[in-house]
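FIELD: query
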Amino acid sequence: MSTNNPYTNLPKNTFWRTGVANAAPDHLDGVYTKKWDISPEDTIASAGSCFAQHITRNLKARNFRFLDVEMAPPGLPDALKTKFGFDMYSARYGNIYTTRQLLQLALEAMGKFVPGERVWTKGERYFDALRPAIEPNGLNSEEEVLIHRQHHLQRVLQMLSTMDILVFTLGLTETWVHKTSQAVYPVAPGIIAGSYSPTCYEFKNLEFNEIYSDLIRFDELMTELRGGMPRIRYILTVSPVPLTATGSGRHVLQATIYSKAVLRAVAGQLANEFDFIDYFPSFEIIMNPAARSNFYDGNLRSIRRDAVDYVMSVFFDQHAPALLKSKPTTPAVPPAPIDERQLQEEEVQCEEAMIEGSKK
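FIELD: result
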């Protein structure tokens, strides 16, 4: 065999045997190299699916300039903040599972879109259909919901106008759509509130071109909104958390692989095309076959805390200038063991997980 070929002098991490099979899954050499620096002056916002809440927590703990435009009211106990949608992201929008949901929020905040059905009911309580888990007990009236939503949209517009970097975690391709207005929801009607009707709602599984176009359109909106300001930079990730359930009619494993493959392909395409978009491989790190699923809890869906900690260490090894390398003022991941039910309820809020509980 010739010793002169294109692979002869490549580094070890470019070969499966030395890069994966013989490498410790929590010590992957060269799995991520940043495209650009995050400076101490950069204001960072976050959004996305449930896994993105870990990124928010770690950015704050490491004293980055994290943007929070919708903070909890004074006196609200820490134990209730996540339950009511505070401290999860840069605004109180809850989980944004799809690119269509992100684009829709920006359009609504800029006054370019009005969802056709903004309020759901459950019993005598009223819920914001676009973020139904934010007020877990609902509100007293439709008017009160709309007042809260208008305040929220003002805060979102502030976030969009001032952020320098958006860290966005792509979570799902599947969504439920209001047929008349084409509004999309974070969870199907009837799971938290509202009532499902096939004449009013339809299932949609976003395709590559749609997801790609959503993110391009979002960036165009940001350029329009911000005028001559420096353009936003993006760090895209793909959530390694599998689907709780699928509305596609396929086996949930097949639906999960389809969803993650499409999202990963879009994120990679955008990162390849644009120098202001970077991709961070949290999905690959957790899904690494060498981990033999040990990065997951017993339900094979929730990510173990030590695995989250490792993913974050890979990110901050690249994105931590010397002045930010000091030890976090608060632990990024609580050290105490916790069972899976507590992990779901206390560490992250995830509306999608409620689907399983709704099955009769």
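FIELD: remark
The chain has one domain: 39-357.
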